[in-house]
TrEMBL record:
PANTHER family to which the protein is assigned, alphabetical: SLL0088 PROTEIN (PTHR38600:SF2), TRANSCRIPTIONAL REGULATORY PROTEIN (PTHR38600)
Keyword set includes Ribosomal protein: no
GO MF: DNA binding; DNA-binding transcription factor activity
Keyword terms: DNA-binding
Classification via Pfam families: HTH_20 (PF12840)
Name of the protein: DNA-binding transcriptional ArsR family regulator
Domain spans labelled HTH arsR-type: 1-94
Species whose genome carries this gene: Allocatelliglobosispora scoriae
InterPro entries named in the record: ArsR-like_HTH, HTH_ArsR_DNA-bd_dom, WH-like_DNA-bd_sf, WH_DNA-bd_sf
Length: 112
């Protein structure tokens, strides 16, 4: 998982902002134009574009321009990096709590 550290850092930084998480939520429904996405958030278009650039640089979204319309698409594979990291952390902590539960259930078994 260490090889994914830089990717993971970029993804967590991108997801740290509620506007960017909102964009991810909306793109979960499917590809959407920048204009349609921007209408959902109370800010200027240049400010909104900064959020899109952060999401794009993290790899969470990709954009493509067709004529005058720029469309954003969620990269579900990049988002899965977070899920993989969380699953690994969950396994570690569940193993620790299982060992503690076992120790507390039968402390005589573990005495030297």
């Amino acid at each position: 998982m260490a090889q994914y550290s830089a990717q993971l850092d970029d993804v967590f930084v991108a997801l740290a902002d509620p506007t960017r998480r909102g964009v991810i939520r909306l793109l979960g429904r499917g590809p959407t134009s920048v204009g349609d996405l921007a209408r959902e958030f109370p800010m200027t278009l240049p400010s909104f574009m900064k959020h899109l650039r952060t999401l794009e640089s993290s790899g969470l979204i990709h954009t493509a321009k067709s004529g005058r319309v720029r469309t954003c698409v969620l990269d579900r594979e990049r988002l899965a990096v977070v899920d993989g990291w969380l699953a690994e952390q969950r396994r570690i902590w569940e193993a620790r709590t299982d060992r503690l539960e076992h120790l507390l259930a039968d402390p005589k078994e573990h005495q030297p």
